[in-house]
Specification:
By secondary structure, the protein is α/β, with parallel strands linked by helices. It has two domains: 121 residues, Nucleotidyltransferase, domain 5 (2-Layer Sandwich), CATH 3.30.420.40; 168 residues, Nucleotidyltransferase, domain 5 (2-Layer Sandwich). Helix content is 44%, strand content 21%. It has 13 helices and eleven strands. The strands form two sheets. It has a six-stranded mixed β-sheet with strand order 8-7-6-9-11-10, with helices on both faces. The chain has a five-stranded mixed β-sheet with strand order 3-2-1-4-5, sandwiched between helices. A hairpin with a 6-residue loop joins β2 and β3. α2 runs parallel beside α4 and α5 crosses α13. The longest helix has 20 residues. The N and C termini lie close together (8 Å).
Length: 310
């Protein structure tokens, strides 16, 4: 792999992300431009199995803007991927055809397994020295991926159809959620997680790593950061007791009362509680006391995968 300037767009259930970067076979990825927008493409998909016209309108505008930005950087290759909401939607072809006609971008709809593999490429690119075996958790809007990577063994991937948007829409109907709703959520997460982990035997000394917006937001909240600082988020060790404390703070407040909490990304107020429930419940099952936070994930992995395929 020679030096390459690449661009990638990740169209997620909750968030859309852009990354333009220089990739070198001998050094770390050099970010040139990155943007993210919480656009909620997956709104209502869990119930209707269809992407709403207004959600498609919101999201389709962003690749148009980003396409012009990408062109200004004179990249050698570009890619766009879509995850849970699009793969679950019966009208997914209508959406990807629209993006193609309006931007010229071909959108690859990732399976849960392929999403996890590319996420692992991103995570591995930024791990601290000495970490070889890891179990990674990627909490998305529509699904959550578990990725077990151990030396000398092929990675084991499991994807469960529980994400922050899906959980919020299906079970957390009150604001704030009731104790009964929260317990129902834990039962669902516990059942699906135990089933997923049954086929993922871990070695002793396996590091638990978390990525994506829920986990990075909780790391920012734990440090009460007034603005997002990737260098303070990446490789931060988020303790289970801190997660439990943040979870209780979030569950005791309405969505409106969460606005302005230090470290909480704007427009994530209504789904951060479901994300905290997922993370805490998974860690309880795994008996993990801390989560190593990765600010790198699918967005970076998409570019690394693109570089490897050139």
């Amino acid at each position: 792999m020679s030096d390459q300037r690449l661009a990638g767009i990740d169209i997620g259930t909750l968030t859309c992300r852009l990354l333009i970067a220089d990739l070198s076979p001998t050094g770390p990825m050099k970010e040139l431009c990155s943007e993210r927008r919480i656009l909620r493409l997956g709104e209502g998909v869990d119930q209707s199995k269809r992407l709403k016209p207004e959600a498609m309108d919101r999201v389709a505008q962003r690749p148009q803007v980003w396409r012009r930005l990408i062109d200004s950087y004179d990249v050698q290759a570009r890619t766009a991927v879509a995850t849970s909401a699009v793969r679950d939607a019966e009208n997914r072809q209508q959406f990807v055809d629209r993006i193609k006609s309006e931007t010229g971008l071909d959108v690859e709809i990732l399976t849960g397994e392929e999403e996890a593999k590319r996420t692992m490429l991103g995570i591995r690119s930024g791990l601290p020295q000495g970490i070889t075996d890891l179990l990674a958790l990627d909490i998305g809007g529509g699904s959550t991926e578990f990725i077990l990577a151990q030396q000398g063994q092929p990675p084991v991937v499991r994807s469960i159809d529980i994400g922050v948007v899906r959980l919020s829409e299906r079970l957390l109907h009150h604001d704030p959620p009731t104790r009964e709703e929260t317990e129902q959520a834990r039962v669902w997460i516990r059942r699906e997680t135990i089933e997923a982990l049954a086929a993922m035997p871990r070695s002793a000394g396996c590091t638990f790593v978390g990525t994506a917006g829920t986990i990075t937001s909780l790391a920012a909240m734990a440090q009460q950061l007034p603005a997002y600082e990737p260098t303070r988020i990446h490789n931060y060790r988020l303790a289970l007791e801190t997660i439990a404390d943040l979870e209780q703070q979030l569950l005791s407040r309405s969505k409106a009362a969460r606005i302005g909490m230090p470290g909480l990304e704007k427009n994530r107020e209504d789904v951060i509680a479901s994300g905290a429930i997922i993370l805490r419940t998974v860690m309880d099952i795994l008996e993990e006391r801390e989560c190593l936070v990765s600010d790198l994930g699918l967005r970076e992995g998409v570019l690394i995968h693109l570089a490897m395929s050139q």
